[in-house]
Amino acid sequence: MESILQVENLTKQYPDFKLDQVSFSIPRGTIMGLIGENGAGKSTTINAILELIRKDEGTVTFWGQDLSSNPKQIKEDIGVVFDGINFYETLTPAKVGKISAAAYKQWDEALYHSYLKKFQLSPDKEIKTFSKGMKMKLCIAVALSHKPKLLILDEATSGLDPIMRDDMLDVFLDFVQDENHSILMSSHITTDLEKVADYITFIHGGKVLFCKAKDELRYNYGIIRCGAALFEQIDKSEVLAYRKCDYQWDVLVADKEQARRKHKTAVVDDASIDDILLLYVKGEQV
C-alpha cells in the first residue's frame, strides 16, 4: 500500500530528552493515531516532520519526496492544526479567509464558509471573543479549506466539547473517504482514536513501542487479571507488560484468546487503547 508519509529513524537529541529513531508510515486513505503520555515525544515528532525543528538523523518523505525538494507544493498539500491558535486575536474569520486565499493557491472560499457555518462560527466576530473550542474549529476550517491531501493534527480536538468533538471526528472520517487523503492525529483522548484511527503508533520515552493496526489491538490484545500464584505460572514470553495492583496482577498479552484457553480460571478482559497505554507507562516490561 502506497504511503503518503514515511518517517524513518527520526532522531533529535536535547540535553534532557532524545527522540530516538522514530519510524512509521501512513498509507493512503487512512488515519494514523499518535499516542503517548505527556512528554513522550509526540509533538517533537510532528515538529521534526514539518521541519519546524532540525532533526539530527533520519528521513521524512511526503509522497516519496523530501520536503526540501518541493517545499511550496508539499506545504500546499498539507493541512496542519496545533493545540493553539496562530492568528491575531483582532482578526475575524472573514479576514482570516482573505489572508489564507493569498497564501494558498488551492484555497476554496466557498468551502471555507461552509465549514464556518457547519462549525457555527460567525465570520464577522473577532477571534478574541471565541472560546478555545471555537478557535480550534476555526483552525480546522482553515486547514481543510486549502484542499490538503494530508492533515497533521496535534491535539486538535482537545478544546472541544464531547458533542462537537464527535462531529469533528465525522469530518475527519469524511476527509479520508478520498483514498488520496490521510491524517496523522496526535491525541491524548484515546477514545477518539478508537473511533476513527486505522493505525496506532505508541511513543514512550522518545521511542516507538509499537505501530499496529487498531483492529489488531482491539481484537487480539487482552489483560489477564490474576493473583500472584497464577502470575508466576504465566509464560513471560507472552507478556507485553504487567502491573501489580492492590489485590491482583494486571498482565497485558497480545493474544487474549490463547490466554483464555491456557488460563481458564483467570479473568481475561478486552484491552482498550487507554488500558494498553497505562500498562506500558505505569507497568513493567519483561
Short description:
By secondary structure, the protein is α/β, with parallel strands linked by helices. It contains eleven helices and 14 strands.
* Rg from Cα: 21 Å
Class of the largest domain, according to the CATH hierarchy?
Alpha Beta
The CATH level-2 architecture of the largest domain is identified as 3-Layer(aba) Sandwich
The DSSP helix count reads: 11
Number of strands: 14
Q: How does the helix and strand content classify structurally?
A: alpha/beta
Strand-residue fraction? 25-35%
Described by strand count, sense and barrel closure, the largest sheet is: 6 strands, mixed
Major β-sheet strand ordering: 6-7-8-3-9-10
Q: Please tell me the overall pLDDT.
A: 93
Tell me, briefly, the overall form. Answer: elongated
Organism: Paenibacillus graminis
GO molecular function: ATP binding; ATP hydrolysis activity
InterPro entries: AAA+_ATPase, ABC_transporter-like_ATP-bd, ABC_transporter-like_CS, ABC_Transporter_VariousFunc, P-loop_NTPase
Protein name: ABC transporter
Description:
It is a single chain. The chain contains eleven helices and 14 strands. With 286 residues, the chain is an alpha/beta fold. It has a six-stranded mixed β-sheet with strand order 6-7-8-3-9-10, with helices on both faces. A four-stranded antiparallel β-sheet has the order 2-1-4-5, with helices on one face. Strand 12 (239-244) and strand 13 form a beta hairpin. One of its GO terms (molecular function) is ATP hydrolysis activity.
Which terms summarize this structure?
6-stranded mixed sheet; single chain; alpha/beta; 11 helices; 4-stranded antiparallel sheet; 28% strand; 35% helix; 286 residues; Rossmann fold; 2 domains
